[in-house]
Design a protein that fits this description.
Helices cover 28% and strands 29% of the residues. By secondary structure, it is α+β, with helices and mostly antiparallel strands. It has two domains: 237 residues, no CATH class; 84 residues, no CATH class.
Length: 332
């Protein structure tokens, strides 16, 4: 059990009963929901889709709605990945009492495309209302900035920031006069397909969850009618592409070495850099095997085009500036 799981047990009065968590809800209007998820064949992403607030009504002033996620999943050749995010999107900032009776549609990415290696996916997801004011607003702003700097996809980049994020959320959650935990869940999921899940501020067993559905505006419905309790809806989506591959640190460095060797007309160094890049790509924990192979082929073609059989740099290579890894066109 993680930080949020412990919090669910200790926040007196906020969560007196076990809440309803539904791991899969029909959502015909959401793309790719129900698509098969296979180990080493795809990436997964986490999105906050929509929410409805109720516990914030005890605040007499304006408040912030804050989403927190912490996902743990298997990682190739390393310890399990841990990816945390804290989000306070514009739609969740400086809300007031008029916001309490409406559903807020977010579709906010909380975890970027991360390789799925199989095994259970541990998910902590919490939605908080935080009173706006001098005490907690600066702390909240700091944590969201830290989360933004850490990013949402690269385990090695995020790891140093994890204590700052969790300790910051611990500080906020500890101010019970100024913070309300709207809904939260700490669970392990055996993912076989992309899914939409929800956690509801209702006692477990109080409704028939088989009658829940999601409409085109991401509102949660019970037997076709909008729910009036607090809730958060999030999705775990399959992705076959990782569009931010160009930001993977080790691969950026390796590809830059290839480009520098090409620019300086050093064919032996270019071939050595390509060999090193290949080793880095095929062992990368941040790429699925098919993307690693595709990326290597793209880099190999770049070297072959730059150094034709006579061993001279092609004219086009001389004229073009050194390109970034993101310019290689992995999915072209």
């Amino acid at each position: 059990m993680g930080w949020l799981g412990n919090l669910l047990k200790t926040v007196a009065g906020s969560q007196p009963t076990e809440l309803i968590f539904v791991p899969s809800i029909p959502a015909p209007d959401k793309p790719d929901i129900g698509k098969e998820i296979q180990p080493d064949a795809c990436y997964i992403e986490l999105y906050l889709e929509s929410l409805r607030l109720t516990r914030a009504r005890r605040f007499a002033t304006r408040f912030h709605a804050v989403a927190y996620s912490f996902v743990t999943l298997s990682r190739e050749g390393e310890a399990r990945s841990q990816l945390a995010a804290v989000s306070k999107p514009d739609k969740l900032a400086e809300l007031d009492a008029s916001s309490l009776d409406r559903v807020i549609t977010i579709s906010k990415q909380m975890m970027g495309a991360t390789p799925f290696r199989g095994g259970p996916v541990s998910v902590e997801f919490g939605l908080f209302s935080v009173k706006s004011g001098n005490l907690l607003t600066p702390v909240l702003d700091y944590i969201t900035r830290v989360s933004s700097v850490a990013g949402i996809s690269y385990v090695g980049t995020i790891k140093p920031f994890l204590p700052l994020i969790t300790e910051g959320m611990d500080l906020i959650a500890g101010q019970q006069q100024d913070t309300a935990l709207e809904v939260g869940v700490d669970t392990d999921l055996a993912l076989t397909t992309s899914c939409v899940a929800a956690v509801l501020a209702l006692p477990k067993g109080s409704i028939d969850v088989k009658k829940l559905s999601l409409d085109s505006d991401s509102r949660l419905l019970l037997d076709g009618k909008p729910l009036e309790c607090g809730y958060a809806v999030f999705s775990l989506r399959r992705s076959l592409e990782k569009w931010d591959y160009g930001e993977i640190p080790d691969l950026k460095v390796g590809y830059a070495a290839i480009q520098t060797a090409i620019k300086e007309n050093r064919i032996t160094d270019a071939k050595e850099a390509l060999a090193a890049f290949r080793r880095t790509a095929i062992t990368s924990a941040d790429l699925i095997p098919s993307d690693a192979e595709r990326l290597v082929e793209k880099a190999k073609k770049k070297v072959e085009d730059a150094f034709p059989s006579q061993g001279l740099v092609a004219k086009s290579a001389r004229k073009k500036p050194v390109e970034k890894l993101s310019d290689i066109g992995l999915y072209d």
